[in-house]
Specification:
mainly beta; Immunoglobulin-like; Protein Transport Mog1p, Chain A; 2 domains; four-stranded antiparallel sheet; 38% strand
Length: 386
């Protein structure tokens, strides 16, 4: 507890990441989580404002886990995770709903996996620009009626399934902030040739060298892997331009086809069938084929992608192609709810090797042919500054 002038949402500094909290959390939650038990109906989900109560039983704050980025890749290349681990970023919002100053301590947050083990926050160098745009959630005070947002980063073992975000305000208390088991999943420079990702040949199946989900591709015409994209079909009245001023690229897309949202991670688009994420990165390899391979290796570690494997055709042709400037690959996987999904990864190098544009597209495997065509239209609207 803090002094009489504050509401305590912090725990003793001597217990940050300590064994007492770890043993307590394991004792309370290890058994129910064993085997990946399903989330309960009253467990909070991502985005839920979870009430936090003071010692007198009155609500003093709400805490919301707004988003999880797993794996988090846009860290400084000089500060990578330890071998066999990866970073996870959690976006947190804390609102002081009481009448007194509220003290918060992000070091009391923890990520819990399905075996009951906890990961505690650690500093991750994201670079000065990213930190300025989206600061780390800091230890300190929040005035009554105010809301503070920030990010907290964790290092977790590859392959671990995340179950909950929890808060440990004292040695005898644990608050569940979000049950992650609710989550079912969990352009060219003018005049230059560019990548055209395409659907796989008819009858394609998953590569047998990786344990695949029991799925197969729908019939789709085989087309060339590399080509100049078709002219954009976006009407002038529906055209919307997204710009990344830091890395110097833009994307023109059809506002009638795609519903968009922007964040510090880039642009997210949805047409009701597939979801496309477009982001610029100065951290990923600027050699496009290496970029695709590295991103795929990271995504294969996430628990929401089971049997993650490169798709291939009847003749064994892999659904991947490209060169140092632009490359793509299409993977198949089974989501947490057992649904057959595809994921397309596209990396395009920016002029002067100043970074890459990364496009990730996820959708039902049965819709791969039509959704690959939709991503071609998007790539036709990609432009770069020299």
């Amino acid at each position: 507890m803090a002094g009489s002038g504050t509401s305590g949402i912090a725990w003793s500094r001597s217990l940050r990441g300590g064994a007492v909290a770890l043993v307590l959390a394991l004792a309370l939650f290890a058994a129910p989580l064993a085997g990946g038990a399903l989330a309960q109906a009253d467990d909070p989900r991502l985005g839920d404002a979870v009430p936090y109560f003071g010692p007198e039983g009155d609500e003093v704050a709400t805490v919301a886990v707004e988003e999880i980025v797993d794996p988090f890749r846009t860290y400084n290349s000089n500060s990578p995770p330890e071998r066999g681990n990866h970073f996870v970023l959690v976006r947190i919002a804390v609102e002081n709903t009481g009448g007194r100053v509220l003290q918060i301590d992000p070091a009391a947050l923890a990520l819990q996996d399905t075996l009951g083990f906890l990961s505690f926050p650690q500093y991750v160098n994201r670079g000065p620009e990213a930190t300025e745009i989206e600061p780390d959630l800091a230890y300190g005070e929040i005035a009554a009626g105010q809301t503070v947002r920030g990010v907290v980063l964790f290092q977790v073992i590859n392959g671990a399934d995340m179950a909950r975000v929890v808060y440990l305000p004292s040695r005898d208390r644990l608050v569940v902030l979000a049950d992650l088991r609710w989550e079912t999943n969990d352009g060219p420079v003018a005049g230059e040739p560019a990548l055209q990702p395409t659907a796989a040949p008819a009858g394609a199946t998953l590569q047998p060298t990786v344990e695949p989900p029991a799925i197969s591709l729908p019939d789709a015409p085989a087309t060339g892997a590399m080509a100049i994209p078709p002219a954009a079909t976006t009407s002038a009245t529906a055209a919307i331009v997204y710009e990344d001023a830091d890395l110097g690229f833009g994307l023109t897309y059809d506002g009638e086809t795609w519903e968009a949202s922007e964040s510090t991670d880039g642009l997210t688009l949805s047409n009701g069938v597939s979801i496309v994420q477009v982001t610029g990165s100065a951290v990923l390899p600027t050699e496009a084929t290496t970029c695709v391979e590295e991103v795929a290796a990271d995504l294969a570690l996430t628990s929401s992608r089971q049997g993650y494997a490169l798709l291939e055709g009847e003749g064994g042709e892999p659904t991947t192609a490209g060169d140092a400037d632009s490359a793509f690959a299409v993977y198949g996987y089974t989501g947490r709810a057992g649904e057959a999904m595809f994921e397309q990864i596209v990396c395009t190098t920016l002029p002067g090797d100043r970074g890459v544009v990364l496009l990730l597209q996820n959708g039902p495997l049965a819709d791969l042919a039509s959704e690959a065509a939709a991503s071609q239209d998007l790539l036709a609207g990609l432009t770069f500054e020299e």
